[in-house]
Amino acid sequence: APAVIVAIDGPSGTGKSSTSKAVAAQLGLSYLDTGAQYRAITWWMVSNGIDVADPSAIAAAAEKPEIISGTDPSAPTITVDGTDVAGPIRTQEVTSKVSAVSAVPEVRARITELQRSLAASAAYGIVVEGRDIGTTVLPDADLKIFLTASPEARAARRSGELKGADVNATREALIKRDAADSSRKTSPLAKADDAVEVDTSDLTLQQVIECVVTLVEEKR
Ligand code: C5P
């Protein structure tokens, strides 16, 4: 069978990562978490004292860090200049700054190129999750999914992941980040015209996985 390319987009807290990883593992495909790449470049900017409120400083440094993503869905990895940053990219500091860094066109051009080359080299195909995969990174994907969920469901899931974090504060932070991601000029978070929208508010993770696996199998 030819390699199958699956794009999964949507805001945070919709179950994108869990779904994408499980679907890739179940179907023997590679997996790419593009949010982790934007978090990794943000981590590098913060670690190197670059002011994230200064787009020209970010643009000037966009090519500097070497970012490598491991695409095995059972053990995805992310390194910056050889350092494992899987932990540090999930801090609140990086989370609060990633939208500003990822809005800079030079950053998007750099990361998009990495994403396209990983997708092109996946022998059996790949599940790529993010915000602009179906619209910009891989417009010719075989299947595009757009996951949504109510703000309540998303905040509840995120606070569950963050163990004991305040649900209201989590919801406010999520809404703020989605608004920034949706309103930026360069490839904002958006549903592609030909994407299948799946509202996960009242579905279990298992149900979402089954739904996406079925859609992929229909395309193969
Ligand atoms: O998915 P995750 O929450 O880890 O993404 C972190 C951030 O990375 C998003 O809020 C967004 O600013 C940025 N991002 C992006 N384009 C993508 C994936 C993530 O701009 N394809």
Automatic annotation (TrEMBL):
GO terms for molecular function: kinase activity. It is found in: Cytoplasm. ATP binds at residues 10-18. Transmembrane segments: none annotated. CDD domains: CMPK. InterPro entries: Cytidylate_kin (IPR003136), Cytidylate_kinase_dom (IPR011994), P-loop_NTPase (IPR027417). SUPFAM superfamilies: P-loop containing nucleoside triphosphate hydrolases. Residues 6-217 form the Cytidylate kinase domain. Keywords: ATP-binding, Cytoplasm, Kinase, Nucleotide-binding, Transferase. This is Cytidylate kinase.
